[in-house]
Amino acid sequence: MTENQAAADQNREHEEKLPRRRRFSGPALFLAGIAIIMAAAVYFTTVNRAAGEIFTYHHLAMDTGIELALHAASRSEAEAAKAKAFAEMARLEQLLSRSIPASDVNRVNEAAGAAAVRVAPETIAVLEAALKFASLSNGAFDPTISPLLDRWGFLGKQPRVPSETEIKETLLLVDYRQVAVDRAAGTVFLPVAGMGLDLGGIAKGYIVDQALARLADAGIQHACLSAGGDICLLGPRPDGSPWRIGIRHPREAGQLIGVLPLSGGAVVTSGDYERAFTVDGKRYHHILDPATGLPASSLASVTIVALSAMEADALSTAVFVLGPERGLALVESLPGVEAVLVTPDLEVLVSTGLKDKLELR
Ligand code: ADP
Ligand code: MG
């Protein structure tokens, strides 16, 4: 979020006590969205020094609020570019969302154990990237987590804590190494009935990247696109200065852990404060550790900075599951990837390349 969005996010925090049906991310909160637009409008008028103007848009997609600020020579240029970006988001959501019955992902899941399914090249691209991050993280990130998420009821209205036996049985169906992708034929096959894909930890990042690419195709050179915590930047701000991206405090609504000045690339945060429910005083959230079948608990939030939002999205989920030591080691091993980790007792761990860049609050 930009610094001014912190206040708007406070509203969001209040709404997140109950689980809700989401495709990729936080609930679509219209009021928070309006507040964000207003904050953004005030913010961006102060940075509008280059020729042209900054236009801001709010939009609902992927069950979350989308904030877009772009610099264009005229309103008509801005409107045309914005329309292309949002149309791209809608098109890709139709392929990748598990909440859309006819999506590629659901068609593959329905045919598990029975048949290979022909899918769009974009679906293959995201799935192959997901499998790469699964292998890089030794299965901490696993796009076949779907049956486990269903056991917990995270997609439905009534989540619940499954028994140990249920978790054990379900984990037998979670194994990214069994996914068969035939790139030449354009098909995906899940060999065991009951297996299922869920691209919720990576698809939003991919979609944000593609939407930003459509803005660039339309001639836009400066833009900031945010989809419920996944932020992607096109160039620096119009005056050449870096955008200032706030990292949300995982426990104090409306507060920031720090601010990152960035002139491009992507920033994505995964936190345990997102989609969660409470039973007998214990909170359970939606990022599950495939090793235990339980919500990962060794971090409160993970922010990843990378060149693409897809990479940052997958890695934020992977590092969240891996925990501080293994997570930070993975980040340090990847060129162009940096991270800010917040532990449950609010210790802030920063990767080498961000140590001099992050402005702590
Ligand atoms: P958000 O969608 O809230 O921004 P993330 O990017 O961390 O947060 O993605 C969390 C989503 O990823 C979950 O809602 C679920 O769809 C999926 N997921 C949960 N656990 C895993 C995992 N271990 N590996 C891959 N995907 C996961
Ligand atoms: Mg993610």
Uncertain runs are 6-26, 28-38, 45-49
Trace the largest sheet across and list its strands. 1-2-6-7-10-13-14-15
Q: Indicate the structural class.
A: alpha+beta
Counting H and I runs of at least 4 residues, what is the number of helices? Answer: 10
Report the major sheet.
8 strands, antiparallel
Overall mean pLDDT stands at 89
Radius of gyration, rounded?
Answer: 20 Å
Give the termini distance in whole angstroms. 15 Å
Bound molecules: adenosine-5'-diphosphate, magnesium ion
Structure characterization notes:
This protein has 361 residues and is of the alpha+beta class. It has ten helices and 16 strands. An eight-stranded antiparallel beta sheet has the order 1-2-6-7-10-13-14-15, sandwiched between helices. Strands 3-5-4 form a three-stranded antiparallel beta sheet, covered by helices on one side. A hairpin with a 2-residue loop joins strand 11 (276-279) and strand 12 (282-285). Mean pLDDT is 89; it is low at 6-26, 28-38 and 45-49. The structure holds adenosine-5'-diphosphate (ADP) and magnesium ion. Magnesium ion binds next to helix 9.
